[in-house]
Design a protein that fits this description.
By secondary structure, the protein is mainly alpha-helical. 72% of the residues lie in helices and 0% in strands.
Length: 302
């Protein structure tokens, strides 16, 4: 529990610091990844945020060794509250009433997932068949990259309304969901006896290569999206997609059985369905800034 709460704090702080650093940088684009990396690596504030995210990754490894996947996701999503508070305090971002209701509904949905857990029956699995992991992860990566590219093409339309970032959040959330499964897989090798043997076994698995892919693409995609959209919206959407993806597909892939009790099973399925429906109903565009009336003259003081 302590490691999960620490990971929440580090992830929220890391995203907010990166967003603040990106606000003072020239516009970045996924079509120029080398330029993007050069710009962000020249910002001490961005480096501080990335170090916080890296420390959160270490805390997440500890969590996956001791908690079932679904339980871990329920705790991780509680960090959304801290993220919204930090975004308002440090970035000056404000969420609309509809978005606040949506975030509350997402927290309620994931609370239902947590209540569906039974510590007496839930077990922590440590392994999954490699072909099954690849069957789950490869299509998810392709879907995330395609969705991000589609959002980019729509955003370049001149007369398109400003996007809130929901599509970007879903796309990056799919990549981070695959990354979360890879972290779960890596954590299983931390219990192996002998460091050398554990490293060799790890390199024979698909997990380090999935982490490398999601780390490289997720870095470029998330930074471009963070610069254009509000962190208080895009990160909660990304986190929700990641948590649901990991809780559902991770539970199935690693063989952590669904609840046998009908009430707990209903809570888990209903919570998942509610969170997905809220994501689909969230506004896709920010309102256009108000334009002054035609013919209005600016008043200047004498």
């Amino acid at each position: 529990m302590a490691a999960a709460l620490l990971a929440n704090t580090l992830y929220s702080l890391g995203f907010v610091l990166e967003k603040r650093a990106l606000g003072s940088l020239p516009e970045v684009s996924i079509r120029q990844p080398a330029r993007l990396l050069r710009l962000v690596l020249g910002s001490p504030l961005w480096i501080g945020g990335s170090l916080a995210l890296a420390a959160g990754f270490g805390a997440q490894l500890i969590v996956y060794r001791t908690l079932p996947i679904a339980a871990a996701q329920g705790i991780f999503v509680s960090g959304l509250v801290l993220l919204v508070l930090l975004s308002a305090r440090l970035l000056g971002e404000e969420t609309t009433g509809r978005e606040r209701y949506a975030l509350a509904a997402i927290l309620g949905a994931l609370l239902m997932v947590v209540l569906s857990l039974d510590e007496r029956a839930d077990t922590v699995s440590q392994a999954a068949p490699y072909p099954l992991i690849l069957l789950v992860c490869v299509p998810s990566l392709a879907a995330g990259v395609w969705l991000y590219g589609a959002a980019e093409r729509r955003a370049r339309h001149r007369h398109r309304m400003p996007t809130t970032g929901v599509e970007y959040g879903v796309a990056v959330g799919l990549l981070y969901g695959v990354s979360s499964l890879a972290i779960k897989g890596v954590s299983s090798y931390l219990t192996s006896s002998g460091l050398g043997g554990a490293v060799v076994d790890l390199l024979r698995s698909p997990y380090p290569y999935l982490l490398l892919f999601t780390g490289a693409f997720g870095l470029v995609m998330s930074q471009a999206a963070l610069q254009r959209c509000r962190a208080s919206l895009i990160v909660p959407v990304c986190t929700t997609v990641t948590c649901l993806y990991t809780a559902v597909l991770g539970t199935l892939s690693f063989g952590e059985a669904l609840p046998h009790d009908p009430l707990r099973l209903a809570l888990r399925l209903a919570g998942t369905a509610l969170a997905v429906s809220v994501l689909l109903s969230m506004p896709k565009h920010d309102p256009r800034p108000e334009q002054p009336p035609v013919g209005a003259k600016e008043l200047t003081p004498p």
